[in-house]
Amino acid sequence: MTVFNASSGFYAEFFVFWVFSGDDEFYSGGSCYSSSPMDLGCLLSVGSNAYPPSKWARISSQFDIRGSSFEQEKKASIEVLPEECLFEIFRRLHGGKERITCASVSKKWLMLLSSIRPSEKEIPKSDDTEMTTGDEDQKETDGFLTRSLEGKKATDVRLAAIAVGTSSRGGLGKLSIRGSNSFHGVTNLGLSAVARGCPSLKALSLWNVSSIGDEGLIEIAKGCPLLEKLDLCQCPSISSKGLIAIAENCPNLTALNIESCPQIGNEGLQAIGKSCSKLQSISIKDCVLVGDHGVSSLLSSASSALTKVKLQALNITDFSLAVIGHYGKAVTSLVLSGLQNVSERGFWVMGNAQALKSLISLTITSCRGTTDVSLEAIGKGCTNLKQMCLRKCCFVSDNGLLAFSKAVGSLESLQLEECNRVTQSGIIAALSNCGAKLRSLTLVKCMGIKDIVAGEPMSSPCTSLRLLSIRNCPGFGSASLAVVGKLCPQLRTVDLSGLYAMTDAGILSLLESLEDGLVKLNLSGCVNLTDEVAVAAARLHRETLEVLNLGGCRKITDASLEAIAANCLFLRELDVSKSGITDSGLAVLSCTEQVALQVLSISGCSEVSNKSLSSLKRMGQSLLGLNLQHCTAISNRSVELLIESLWRCDILA
Q1: Is the pTM of this model over 0.90?
Q2: At 161, is the secondary structure helix, strand, or coil?
Q3: If phi over 0 gives left and psi between -120 and 50 gives alpha, with beta otherwise, what is residue 9?
Q4: Distance CA 261, CA 284 (A)
Q5: How far is CA 207 from the centre of its chain?
Q6: Contact call for residues 137 and 164 (beta carbons, < 8 A)
Q7: SS (H, E, C) 264-289
Q8: Least buried of 69, 309, 400, 409, by fewest C-beta within 10 Å?
Q9: How far is 133 from 34, CA to CA, in rounded Å?
């Protein structure tokens, strides 16, 4: 017979979860033990162990049905006690062990135990201190534990089990609830149990839980005064009332994230700004009731500590950006996205207000007010800006990029995505003006970039650039790449994925221009490249190249693998998926001792067959990842043999 011991730590909480898992109907409304007098004695001895009824006791009670005597035995069960009496018993339990033991008896007992507030627990007298074990109660407010519930597992009963089960083992510090059980989902009752049993809670995340409203959040505010991080996403029943309670009771709040909460408005943000002086990070997205009044009040009140601000898809105007410009003295990271009511004037004022001297990272996405004029103002006002990202800013052109690059003096990273008015001339001008400190340049889907016309004048070099990423820009061709290679001779990482117009000439010119040696080279999707490029990369950068991606380069053959095997001393990741390599190329690669690949992808290589089984096994001594997906000539049996042999390697097939 297995004896349940509540001192088993995590297993005690797991047992409570197991008893009330699934449809939460195990022992609902009553005890999981028999109601005979013999069993009653076991239940009343609520020590550290609870014993199930013996076989003899069950047999005796089954046949002991003698009229009034049977009725008397039935009434003797502890279950006939009213909840008030059980409450008085439970609140006098000395430690977490006893509470966990009782919580495992029935759902009724569990929910009753979870309803006891810390202030309602009776502290044992000094004469009884020997009955408690060590420092188990002292740990209740430390908040060491993390729990996460998703989908069907998110129920009130499980939250109650967490509240009771974590109190004696460090206390609950972080709780995340994502989704909810459609039949027995999380409600205010479950969140109230957490509030009563987990005063150490410091981080709470609620995602897509429509059944939790202000009542539950108010209980959290009252019961968890140490709360530091609150994340509310798609919580339609929570309004400003709940947020006001958080502001009034949780002065240690440092991070607040609100997304798609239609009932939260300006009043809640005003309360947060007024009472939460330690707030460092705020993120608000798609909240229809949030406007200038709430955002400006929050930013102006909490400006002393606020370092991270993210405003997305809000009905705010130029006024809010002006407030950021005047009060954002401590802001280091700013994200503005989908602000359709903010004009050029708003961004211009934000930059010219001269308060964003501490701003290091700025991201602007889909904001019509971002123009050449406002971009120049931002460059002049944000003198310490190091990271700039512009996405879908359709009114920014070469002139704005040139003015911005001249004004900002400390830029280290520039990223442009779908900025279709920017051309090759603007990019080269930015490289020349930011040549002292710029280390990373990323261009994604910039359709305005066209290949350079022969004879265009050269600019001063950008010797600081280490990373160049140009992805899915169809107009960027070989002539442009040759110019960039001469401008940026110190590149270490190059990503040119999706440039289907690129030819060998442009890549070869770049490879020959680089002085320090490439570490990472990504040419995936450059369908016109041949073995000449791979051979040159292996030969020119043999002592530095660590990652090489030739995925989708259909003209790559075994000659590339032979060059890699002969030259690349430190290559650890190789992708030749959807290429023309065969079994022979893999055989050569596997026989060399100097190449010790950790990741290899040959996905979609139709010429690789079962004959490569031995080659892959030889390389398996160092491989940690192998992609064999869509290799139609490799049988399932061969894959099974590889999985058995390469037990250290993750194999996709």
Answers
A1: no
A2: helix
A3: left
A4: 9
A5: 13
A6: no
A7: CCHHHHHHHHHHCCCCCEEEEECCCC
A8: 69
A9: 30
Tell me the CA distances in angstroms from 241 to 215, 216, 263, 268, 492, one per residue in order: 9, 11, 9, 7, 53
pLDDT digits (tens, 9 = 90+) for 584-603: 999 999 998 888 999 999 99
Report the b/e string of 338-351 with b at 16+ CB within 10 A. Answer: ebebbbbebbbbbb
Give the SS3 label for residue 482. Answer: helix
Rounded to 10 degrees, what is the CA torsion of 233, 235, 240, 245? -90
Token digits of residue 57: 């006791």
β-strands 413-417, 361-365 pairing: unpaired
Query: Distance between CA 220 and CA 193 in Å, rounded?
Result: 9
DSSP-derived pairing of the beta strands 361-365 and 599-601? unpaired
- C-alpha 379/C-alpha 603 separation (Å) is 45
Rounded Cα–Cα distance for residues 184 and 291 (Å): 36
Nearest to 3 by CA among 58, 53, 56, 50: 50
Residue bearing tokens 């405003």: 311
Distance, CA of 542 to CA of 561 (rounded, Å): 13
Token pair for 295: 């955002």
The predicted-structure confidence for 7-32, as pLDDT tens digits, reads as follows 444 444 544 444 444 344 333 334 33
